[in-house]
Amino acid sequence: MRVGVYLRQSLDRTGEGLAVSRQREDCVKLCDQRGWTPVFYEDNDTSATKGVRPAYQNLLEDAEKGVIKGVVVWDLDRLHRRPIELEHFMELADRKRLSLATVTGDVDLSTDNGRLFARIKGAVAKAEVERKSARQKRAARQAAEAGHGWGGRRAFGYDPDDLPLEPEASLLRGAYKKVLSGISLHAIAAEWNRNGINTTAGKKWTGSTVRQVLINPRNAGWRSYRGEIVADATWEPITTEDTWRAVASLLNTPGRRAGTNARKRLLTGILICGRCEHPMRSGVSHTSNDPIYVCKNCHRNSRRLDPVDGLVIKLVKGFLSSPLADALLVNPNQGNLEELRNEEAGLIGRLKQLGVDYAEGLLNGREVKTARERLETRLSDIREQLINTNDQVFEGLIRTDFKWDSLHLDRQRSVIRKLFVPTLLPAGRGRPFQPDHLSIRWLPKEH
Ligand SMILES: [Zn+2]
Predict the structure, then answer these.
(1) Cis peptide bond upstream of 164, omega within 30
(2) 273 C-alpha vs ligand 1 centroid, how far in Å?
(3) β-bridge mates for residue 37, sequence order
(4) How many CB atoms are located within 10 Å of the residue 193 CB?
(5) Does residue 124 carry a pLDDT above 70?
(6) pTM above 0.70?
């Protein structure tokens, strides 16, 4: 029988934790005794602290696929750091009839007692992590005071005493605004890099590190989130609760990826091919070297880019300066804001309560699962509405004399996406572009 042996470094940097080599040795011995064939999955210290554990994910996938029939781990606390992970694992173990063996003593997840034991161990492990991080923080502060530099890493935007630090705090505030107005994380990263702003680790920014910084709940004055504990902190928030929530929901929206380096034009991926209805790409004409939009699906539709962009920009500006655009200013959700936020808080509370009810045996696993699904569906609806409420794409653009060229490309693209879908109709080869080659479908939702 093949079993997954999961190894993880200790979170403790002082070295008092159990080395991976020792864990591996003990687990292999255990597999030998039982006649199991070990397959190793190993995560490192840093990723585990951040809650990202690629090897652990692989282990779950392999268990799901039936590649491994059991899991061996030195101690349960290697396997899970958060109660929710344990719940997921128990559900999987149950469904796939996984064996679980630990060097420190077996845990039978198929019995109530075994599950209870696992949960208690989980709670203890969690408390342990929190204690350790407090200890590390203290040690780091002592080191800083003694002039040894900062052992742990301060958060971007805050000094080591948790006070907002300029210019970082202002940069963060600006970045929240930019994200809400449709500018990509990649563009923000590029701008910070251009201005010589580094991460607190002294590195260059990427879209993904900007994202990490923005979704940190500490910027809104909270201690912790992940849907579990949300407590007020002692430090000063950099942004408002509303803004943070809107950005965090936006960035957590599945399907949104950090900006890529691919060369983008105004209508790349927005302009639709009138022949095959696929989004068109941009490229360069082989004959004239001019930039063009081209369909890489049917290969039978392409046009010089400049006149198409010119017409689209004219349409957008015309619309935004007309009385029709006033409708965009009226936010249909404005009055509901408070209500939505209350409901969101209520749902988070009920989700938390589910765990308690489960631990106390008031609900069984199936009931918790059903209830959780229902609550989470509603929660994601509400979060989407909150995003729309905070939508700032059109801020400062309606019936003002703004300069289109002064807007960032990402924002220009967001504006177009919100207004209409442009389709490039096929025309004879070599024919110059005419306005009626472009068909515009205005999006009705907002006006
Ligand atoms: Zn096509």
Answers:
(1) no
(2) 5
(3) 2
(4) 14
(5) no
(6) no
